[in-house]
Amino acid sequence: MVDKQAIDGPRPEAVAFSQRGGARLGLLKFSWPFARLRIDGDGVSLSVPFYTMRVPRGGARLSAKRGHGILGSSLVIQRDATGSLRHVIFWTPALDALVAALERNGHDVVRQQ
């Protein structure tokens, strides 16, 4: 018997929202579906192969940017922490659902055009 949690990650009770997309972390770009953004009670995490970035609630400025095309819309994460990954982009075809989930979980999101 395969342990489903080991394959899929945390149980749904722990993760309020999860979405696949693409991401840009510094000079590295990960196309869809190789990035996953998860929202839980403590904050937001962005996972790409071999790396997970964790942002606690209130630890970053979140901006929703509407673009053109399937993956043109994005969430820009500008972290307050010092380091090389202060500015991260998550591309998603379902920006409205992502923004709604962030706001439901107490995150402030600035909407840009």
Topology:
Blueprint: H1 4-8, E1 15-25, E2 28-40, E3 43-48, E4 51-56, E5 60-65, E6 74-79, E7 87-91, H2 95-104, E8 109-112
Verbal overview:
With 113 residues, the chain is mainly beta. The chain has a single domain, classed as Roll (PH-domain like), CATH 2.30.29. The protein is built from 2 helices and 8 strands. The protein has helices spanning 4-8, 95-104, and strands at residues 15-25, 28-40, 43-48, 51-56, 60-65, 74-79, 87-91, 109-112. Strands 4-3-2-1-7-6-5-8 form an 8-stranded mixed sheet, covered by helices on one side. The longest helix is centred in the last third of the chain and has 10 residues, at 95-104.
Tell me briefly what this model is:
With 113 residues, the chain is mainly β.
